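Consider the tokenized backbone below.
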């Protein structure tokens, strides 16, 4: 927390698109698991979050199997994973639904991890970012692929203060695991 009296804390919204999923025949979309590449990339995402000091205080995760598996493999790379809430509303969510979920987060959470799906996540990042460091916004406009991580920073007393154009996109990375 920022020690200055009256200062709003720096909050970070870390957006993680689920890792690469498989397309098994006859499996409903919500039940699709990770593909072999996704099983390699999800732990790499967890490592990337740790290396960039982007570990969350709380994770909100879609209930889709591929999102849950991404969370499980990524968070297994950390000593003690934070609490996770599996949110049915994050599956196939658009920007208003995603923002509604974020607005419900308790104020003591300073770094929130949101794990979900495109096109909603990409649209959310583009909607919230008023500016970016380097060419991060351009990167997201071109593509927000599976396992992509976007970090948005902003000052706010509560998560309800997060609104379109109020955040700074501080970085985008697309971790990839090594083939064995």
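A designed sequence for it:
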């Amino acid at each position: 927390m920022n020690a200055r009296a009256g200062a709003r804390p720096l909050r970070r919204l870390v957006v993680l698109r689920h890792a690469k999923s498989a397309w098994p025949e006859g499996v409903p979309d919500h039940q699709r698991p990770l593909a072999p590449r996704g099983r390699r990339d999800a732990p790499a995402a967890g490592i990337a979050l740790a290396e960039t000091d982007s570990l969350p205080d709380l994770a909100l995760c879609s209930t889709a199997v591929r999102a849950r598996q991404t969370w499980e493999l990524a968070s297994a790379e950390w000593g003690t994973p934070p609490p996770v809430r599996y949110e049915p509303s994050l599956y196939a969510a658009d920007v208003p639904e995603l923002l509604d979920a974020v607005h419900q987060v308790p104020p003591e959470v300073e770094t929130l991890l949101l794990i979900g799906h495109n096109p909603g996540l990409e649209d959310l990042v583009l909607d919230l970012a008023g500016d970016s460091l380097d060419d991060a916004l351009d990167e997201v406009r071109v593509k927000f692929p599976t396992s992509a991580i976007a970090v948005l920073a902003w000052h706010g007393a509560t998560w309800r203060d997060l609104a379109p154009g109020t955040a700074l996109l501080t970085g985008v990375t697309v971790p990839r695991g090594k083939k064995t």
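The longest helix spans residues 36-51.
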